[in-house]
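Incident log entry.

Two folding requests arrived from the same account within the same minute. Monitoring flagged them as a possible duplicate submission, but the sequences differ. Recording both here for audit purposes.

Request one:
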Amino acid sequence: MDDDSVILQKPLSQLIADALKKEIWNKEIQFGERLLETELAERFDVSRSTIREALKTLEIEELVISKARKGTYVANFTDQDLGEMIELRTLLETRAFTDAIPRLEKQHLQKLEAITSQMKEKAEEQDWNELFDLDMKFHSYVVNLCHNSRIIKIYNSLQVQIRTFLMHLDKYYSSPQSFYNEHQDLLRALTSKDIQTVQNQVQTHISYVEEKLLGTNQLNENGEVSAK
């Protein structure tokens, strides 16, 4: 089944939710910004009920919050939110990558090589958004090889939040090339099939994110993340 077939099978509300996510990740819609049903219905040329369904999807994914008698807003994230997500991601990925090692076959490594090759191209183009999408693709591919359905389910439920946090990392890497290099290191570790090497590389990769996000941000008076 090709990508177009998958898209055609998605309900309209999901397509709109996906479009809004992209706009948030592209920083076209800001954290804390109010989302008005009437404006969105007019822009997407759909009914308000379809917009409500789309916003409900984003609320379930914790990307927006609905405030009684005030409306719907793009969620803000605190340092505690960031720390909890990174801690959970470290636990899940370390275990999932470890469990995936015995199942890594030639075709799997070739798939990961193809993803990193795409990352190299996007790094050369300095396209951070595509790099972050490919980052998610790389990590999700390995996690899905762990064959632990509960780990996979929990990890998938974090995808939107992880991708949302990644959108700010371009400030902290010296270049897109350095971000790509980290995934080359991850691929080499997986190719070695050495458990300790893989675990160390996963934890190093994610701990860098934690250091940069939590070490370079502070809480503002509302308990939200703001740059120092």
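Request two (distinct sequence, not a duplicate):
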Amino acid sequence: MNDPLPERSIPITITYLRMDRPLTKAPPPTPGIPHAILRAERPTISFYRYLYNTVGERWTWTERRYMSDDDLGAIIRDDNVEIMVLYVRGVPAGYAELDFRKLPDEADLAYFGLMPEFIGMKLGPWFLHWAVSELWSRGPEAVTINTCTADHPSALPMYQRIGFNPVRREDAMLRPLP
């Protein structure tokens, strides 16, 4: 039996998007500040929660906050899931969760975002292009992503500019931050 949603739940609309062809547009300019993208191999639960909670707090990312450590660990330590962390001057600036569990049909950008201090520095479009290129490098038939009305207001337009097309919308209730 599912737990009832708390009274403070937030109504949202989720938009599911799909890209059926690899990127053809040139990538945005490479950031002019020292940066690196590193895979967090078999990340600890606490490090992943730090990334997820810090990137998603302003946008009410709650789904994984309610997951048990065992359930979360099963996802993030799966051999077909890659947690890619963007560092700027040695500091975590964002992350992309690349999910290849549905290959060869689809690759999914399960989570993507920047730490609050790095929003507005033109890193988002560049990092998104990088992440989507990585997903396509595995040869899927399509790449998917979703966003919702509680997410950054630039998320949906940025996804559409890079080539994602909405395929479905769904109304839902978002659990509040614990």
